[in-house]
Write a structure and sequence with these properties.
This protein is mainly alpha-helical. The chain contains nine helices and no strands.
Length: 140
C-alpha cells in the first residue's frame, strides 16, 4: 500500500477500523450495521450542535471519522429544531427500517460511549451539556 508519509492519513483506515471494531464489540453487531449507526448518530449529534460546537468536536475526531461527521453537513441549517430525545432517536431509527433497532437507546448510548473513550473529557462534557437533559441521559 502506498503511503503519503503523513501519519494521520496513512493510519486513517486502521484508526477508523478500530473505532468500528469497538462499536461492533460493544453491540455484538456486524460492521455494516455498526457503521450505519455510527454514521447516523454522528450526523444527529452534529446537527443538534451549533456550528462552533460541532467544529470543536470534529477537531478531536480521527480523519476518516471526521469525514463521516462532516459528510453532507449544512451548517446554516444547524442546530435543527426540535432537538428532543424522541426526535433524535426517531431520526436514527429511520435509517434502520429494514432491520429495526431492538433497543435504540442502548445503540445510541454505545456511540456516545465510543466518543467518551476517544475524545477529551472536557469536549465530551461540553457536547453532552449542549444537549437537552433527556438526551444527556443517553451519554451516561
Amino acid at each position: 500500500m502506498a503511503t503519503t508519509g503523513i501519519s494521520s492519513l496513512d493510519h486513517a483506515p486502521q484508526v477508523f477500523a478500530e473505532w468500528l471494531n469497538e462499536l461492533c464489540f460493544d453491540l455484538e453487531w456486524e460492521k455494516p450495521r455498526a457503521y450505519m449507526l455510527l454514521h447516523e448518530t454522528l450526523h444527529a449529534v452534529r446537527d443538534y450542535l451549533t456550528p462552533d460546537e460541532a467544529a470543536d468536536l470534529a477537531a478531536q475526531l480521527p480523519v476518516l471519522v471526521r469525514g463521516v461527521f462532516y459528510d453532507g453537513w449544512q451548517p446554516s441549517k444547524t442546530p435543527v429544531k426540535p432537538r428532543n430525545k424522541t426526535d433524535l432517536l426517531a431520526r436514527i431509527e429511520a435509517r434502520f427500517q429494514k432491520d429495526p433497532l431492538e433497543d435504540p437507546e442502548r445503540a445510541v448510548s454505545a456511540v456516545f460511549d465510543l466518543l467518551r473513550r476517544h475524545v477529551s473529557w472536557g469536549e465530551f462534557e461540553q457536547v453532552k451539556n449542549a444537549m437537552r437533559k433527556p438526551i444527556q441521559e443517553l451519554w451516561d
